[in-house]
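Model it.
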Amino acid sequence: MTDFDRDDTTPGTTDVTRRDFLRTGAAAGLGAAVALHGIPTAAAAAIGAPAPTDPPPAGAIRVRQTAGAQRYAELPSVAWRPVAGRAGAADVVLRPQQRFQDVLGFGAAFTDAACYTFNRLTPAARAELFHDLFHPSQLGLSTGRACVGSSDYSTKAYSYDESDTPDPELAKFSIEHDKQWILPMLREARAVNPDIFLLASPWSPPGWMKDNNSMLGGTIRRRYLPVYANYLTKFVQAYAAEGVRVDAVTSQNEVDTDQDGRMPQCTWPQEIEVAFVGEHLGPSFEKAGVKTKIWLIDHNYNLWGRAIASLEDDAVRKYADGVAWHGYVGSPAAMTRVHDAFPQKHAYWTEGGPDITAPDYQTDWTHWTTQFAGIMRNWSRCIIAWNYALDEQGKPNIGPFPCGGVVTIHSQTREITRSGQYWALAHFSRHVERGARVFASSGGAKELAHVAFENPDKSRVLVLANSGKAATTTRVVLGGHQARVTLPPDSVTTLEWA
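Modeled.
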């Protein structure tokens, strides 16, 4: 049994907080490189067989590394040389002919809190930061997640139909709140990178649709499902009218918890989601001519059984493009289980971020690269982290979790600090293009996580994370060629070649 076959859910619990996950690393840990789309990585290397023949690399390997005081530093190129000896278990063996999913991109969430924080910068400072984050010549982050109304990372709790009494005709529907800083920030980011793919997730329907008449906790009343489908349809249309295309929506953020009523959230039982997507939301989009994709679950890996059962419904399968995943409970192998059951449906990783109170907030790049490698090795098409930006206290925040942003923007000085997650994202997003394909990589030392990609232009990328306390020299084997790369302790290294 591989590490990815373990059930990492804490016994006796039904949910794990973001802080618990970030502290314990429960989602993938150091086992992120153990499985590749359900295939044990050490298998080929243990046999000692060479990789299938492949045209010789055209040039040297370009190297970028983050370790110690270095941040995404350019190192001298490494040459390919003829293979000497058989591949061993500690070697990383590449098999580009064995290809898997294509890549949508990397990014984070444009929450109300993140957009408020971006908006506090001067236009010049924000333009500089957005160029760094989104421009294709820089990080080139190309995915984002917006919130349909308020999440816990908002300046206040709000919906798009604030009413003390039921409003089934949605006469009071308005996205006015989002016009202050959310829509402007989304337009500005898309102006820098027009290819940003935008997901939108609802945390809660308007309170009057729910059994507790509040956006905090509770469950939607079944009779309002068609009204809520119209609500989401109107949201997509209203954003489009403001010049912001919504490419995908999830039916509900974190379907399996109401967070004890401590924040905007809504329990969404499986039968409700199946009925909502298949009978209401999908047909509502279809009738309105809305091309926005629908993703299920938007919650933890341990709900993989629910995902399979939901996709067995014909109507859900008709309208759902795939499943959105969070990494707070379970392991990424869950995505492979769902893929194996429904290979025509896609996997998307849509939430996870650092703890602002963690002492390694600025330096946990190896942790996040290890997580990202495990995610991409199990069929996910994207990495969408949590808040793009928050202040030095992890605010604005109306919920109970102490999250940090991909970047921190100080509330007084406006100084910008980059997190360890930022540097992990850089090692992927600066090299892996939309449409790249994940391909097989196997072997490697216990402390080494890795994942490989081939871009549309046929250039290839290998990202490695050494979580060990000692430096190691790793041999990378590609067909009849090899390269040796030195990996410092607690380091991330990206290799790219033609």
